[in-house]
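Annex B. Sample input.
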Amino acid sequence: MRILIVTHRYPPSYSAGTERYSEALAKGLVARGHEVHVCCAEKDVSQRDYSLVRRVHRGVEVHEIINNLFYDSFNETYQNPSVEAVFASVLKVVRPDVVHVQHLMYLSVGCLGLAADSGARVVMTLHDFGLECARMGQLLHVDGGLCETVEFERCGSCLVQTAWNQSAGARIVGNMLGAVRRVTGLDLAPRVTRLARKSGAVGAGAAAKGTADASKTTDAESHATWARAAEARSSALVQAVQRHARHVFAPSRFLADRCLALGLDPGRVEFLPTGVQRVEAADVS
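Annex B, continued. Sample output.
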């Protein structure tokens, strides 16, 4: 079968849990004789926004959608027509039989519908609480408190202090770096990023990690606006998963129960523990 794994990031530049799981899954499927592709997002300000970069990682072709987080509205963080257009082109090239979605962060909820409309069987594995929580799916408020239940009013007071896009200044610098690379071939982005981090001008991955921005207003009206935004986001994600994913795998019973509480079809939600390759301990005696 031709299988397309969809995830927010992918090794070797990223090595968190979902990324490593996706890499191991791709490796295992290839070993079983399947043709495997990966589609992910990548932030590279020296590349044109929403361009497509192809590379090969350990025998697997990786299709990277460049998303530099130059969003004009919060809605673009989860409903992004530009990302969807590039993803549609990937589907046409790969023509997958199965699309296994690991994460939609930095991508778009519409990717689920596009995958289903292509004729592929769509399945999804949830690795966090991203269907509910707009702050990295962690159920952690920006004040450090744990959100045992999601109350959108409380989400409003969190998101109003959470960075979700790149600043206007970062966008200008990114466009300049991109122009330099296209004209000269020189990629100055890594050097500029290192200098900015060393000087404290930007935090490492600030927009991605949701660093609070003290300059944003925190009045009641703003909280209400962000509460509605959080609810709209969760509703769009849940509806898309319910409509297009034939199976939703949860690596813990707790997460599976959270899915059911969101209204997902019990017949589609399945508790499936994360596979771990057992390796014999080395003899150090």
